[in-house]
Amino acid sequence: MTIAPDALRRQLDDAAAARPHTPAVVTAGLVLAVAVVAGTDLSLPATAAALLAAAVAAVVARRRDRARRTVVATDGPEAAGRHVRHEQLVATWERLRCAATSWEPAVWEVAPHGVHAPVARRLDGPRHLRAADPVPTFAGTRREIAFLPDAVVLRDGRFHTVVGYDALEVDASVHERAGGGRLGRLTVRAAGVTSVYDLASVDAACATAAALRGLTDAHVRRAPEAERPARVAARRASRARAVGETRARLAAVPSPRQPSDATGRSCASPTAAL
Questions:
Q1: In 113-178, where does DSSP find H-type helix?
Q2: Is pLDDT at 221 greater than 50 in this prediction?
């Protein structure tokens, strides 16, 4: 993700807060069309032109609203090591989404008071974000949680939170239904926000949790740029000190002397020469 988490959060909040212009444009176009029709005694060319102009204005306004209210996220070089594991998550997500039955929702979000709300399992990211690659997303009415290759995006109404996978905790358990049967309960914690989902299949919950944990385990913390020169210098000093101690120990050992083949003179041991 080339956009920093804080910058991405601000852009998503701004996109969600932007008011759409399409309804006003459509209303104005219809009013204009009615006025034109009323002033031309239902002339067919004038009516067609007015309706065409209103339709074109509505299409243009909708495209501009989509551009204003959508943030495009692209993957940066820091996400290169995660693509393989993210592709595994996408494959698991798509397989489970296609296996969902039409007569029963595959996922429910568990509210704090225990009420279940249906949740869609999508691959197009949260409402105000678009990416070139698939983005597995739990999409509810007000809340969404999306998994980019290098970040997790949470939406609550018009407010977003963006965190790295080092802040993600995932648990899977079995939940007994009140009327019989079992559900797979998936608990996702990130940035102090806990999202609980009940999946119709226990295996689906375990597979999803395993794929998400794979992204968490793949996270490798890199030292800040300011700390790297000091760490490199410390490693070099430690290596030089070890080499010096080894040479000192070798110098303290008496070197065995061997007669040469031609003159009988002694020569230094190859070990001491090192």
A1: none
A2: no
| Tokens 């949470």 -> residue | 154
Question: Which residue's structure tokens are 């001491």?
Answer: 272
pLDDT at residue 264 greater than cutoff 60? no
Residue 174 Cα distances to 22, 115, 211, angstroms: 46, 17, 18
Spatial CA neighbour of 205 closest among 214, 213, 197: 197
Q: In angstroms, what CA-CA distances link 101 with 21, 95, 97?
A: 38, 12, 9
Q: Pick from 194, 170, 166: which is nearest to 184 by CA?
A: 170
Residue with tokens 């999508």: 122
Half-sphere exposure in the Cβ direction for 117 (13 Å, CA): 14
**Per the structure block, which two tokens stand in for 205?**
């919950």
Backbone angles phi, psi at 174, to 5 degrees: -105, 130
pTM of the predicted model as reported, rounded to 2 decimal places: 0.65
The answer to whether residue 117 scores a pLDDT higher than 70 is yes
DSSP string, 163-204: E-GGGEEEEEEEEE-TTSSEEEEEEEEETTEEEEEEES-HHH
Give the Cβ contact number of residue 187 at 10 Å. 16
Q: For residues 158-185, give the mean pLDDT.
A: 88
Please report the pLDDT score of residue 266 as a whole number: 43
Residue 136's pLDDT band, with cuts at 50, 70 and 90, is: very high
